[in-house]
């Protein structure tokens, strides 16, 4: 049993805005919640390389190819920082990766949709990275030090991702009629899945209250979704794009955009493994893991030999 005095002192530290570090006392449930959320976040970054990676060999110019290569590599880096940050909670990297490969762990629903045209690369940068920044700017103030610090660097890189995406969106929106059609089609297909990234409505979100009490989240899923809509509707209109929502309407009283209802049946279908690309995504990760076995073995052997050498010297 955890000492209730320690739990109260922990909550006081959170309420004062102090940062919790790996060796500090933390309730088991706080640790478990962070392992769940941070490992899912890491998996999302790694699986998230696949939809855009699909277009690297077909980028329309050298400039676009360099930008895309660099962006996809950044996502790999984010996954690695987040796996390392999760390890500070005592979770082994092998265990969390096995959970992904066995289908036990979740990753963001958004990456289970296909990238059908080059315009999808532009829209992922604009909308998906745009959504990620809104969520992660909040997480950069999270109560757990290693998570918050990882987020600061990740957000800087995500800002570049969003800017390159929006620049490409704007170029296509003022391009030929075919380019305009391609970019509008991509927005039509990605808008609703992006709204789903923020998770279920607050009343249906079993984890939010606890995460807010512990200062991991400071805003609810619906609050973040509303910030995303407010910002991105303006950006769409600036470049002459339509948002595929007949219920979208500016509310003078609240100063926010009202928007239509998300298809929650589709959301849960995708989260439970039955989205358009779930099977392909997991198979791609399993194949990469198997093919990378020799690298892991070589790294372990190198570490073993280095340790032996260090022991001899001392
Ligand atoms: N997809 O009680 P809540 C990126 C699950 S990174 C799948 O509301 P919570 C960068 C949830 O896990 C994108 N599952 O949960 C990039 C829970 O199930 P569990 C990823 C979802 O934790 C850009 C259940 O539903 N970002 O895009 C989703 O309070 C471009 C009930 O939900 C993060 O992971 C979903 N969309 O809030 C990369 C940020 N939503 O675990 C490449 C960190 C909910 O109890 C290219 N995570 N679920 O079995 C978070 O902020 C939160 O965990 C939420 C969910 C907001 C995802």
UniProtKB/TrEMBL annotation:
Assigned EC number: 1.14.13.149
GO molecular function: phenylacetyl-CoA 1,2-epoxidase activity
Short name of any one Pfam family annotated for the protein: PaaA_PaaC
Keyword set, alphabetical order: Oxidoreductase
EC category: oxidoreductase
InterPro entries membership: Aromatic_CoA_ox/epox, Ferritin-like, Ferritin-like_SF, PaaA, PaaA_PaaC
PANTHER family documented for this protein: 1,2-PHENYLACETYL-COA EPOXIDASE, SUBUNIT A (PTHR30458:SF2), PHENYLACETIC ACID DEGRADATION PROTEIN PAA (PTHR30458)
Name of the protein this chain belongs to: 1,2-phenylacetyl-CoA epoxidase subunit A
Organism listed in the record: Fodinibius salsisoli
Gene name as annotated: paaA
């Amino acid at each position: 049993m955890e000492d209730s005095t320690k739990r109260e002192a922990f909550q006081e530290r959170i309420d004062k805005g102090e940062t919790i570090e790996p060796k500090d006392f933390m309730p088991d449930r706080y640790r478990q919640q962070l392992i769940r959320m941070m490992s899912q976040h890491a998996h999302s970054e790694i699986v998230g390389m696949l939809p855009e990676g699909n277009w690297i060999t077909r980028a329309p110019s050298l400039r676009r190819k360099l930008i895309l290569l660099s962006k996809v590599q950044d996502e790999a880096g984010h996954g690695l920082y987040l796996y390392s940050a999760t390890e500070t909670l005592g979770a082994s990297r092998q265990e969390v990766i096995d959970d992904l490969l066995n289908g036990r762990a979740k990753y963001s629903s958004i990456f289970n949709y296909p990238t059908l045209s080059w315009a999808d690369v532009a829209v992922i940068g604009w909308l998906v990275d745009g959504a990620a920044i809104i969520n992660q700017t909040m997480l950069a103030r999270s109560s757990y030090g290693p998570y918050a610090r990882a987020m600061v660097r990740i957000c800087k890189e995500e800002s570049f991702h969003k800017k390159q995406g929006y620049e490409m969106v704007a170029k296509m929106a003022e391009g030929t009629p075919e380019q305009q059609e391609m970019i509008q089609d991509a927005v039509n297909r990605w808008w609703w899945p992006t709204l789903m990234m923020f998770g279920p409505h607050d009343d249906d979100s079993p984890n939010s209250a606890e995460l807010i009490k512990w200062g991991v989240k400071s805003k609810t899923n619906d609050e973040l979704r509303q910030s995303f809509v407010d910002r991105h509707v303006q950006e769409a209109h600036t470049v002459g794009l339509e948002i595929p929502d007949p219920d979208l309407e500016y509310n003078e009283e609240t100063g926010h955009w009202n928007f239509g209802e998300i298809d929650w049946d589709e959301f849960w279908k995708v989260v439970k493994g039955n989205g358009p690309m779930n099977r392909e995504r997991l198979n791609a990760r399993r194949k990469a893991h198997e093919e990378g076995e020799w690298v892991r073995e070589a790294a372990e052997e190198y570490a073993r030999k280095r340790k032996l050498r260090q022991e001899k010297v001392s």
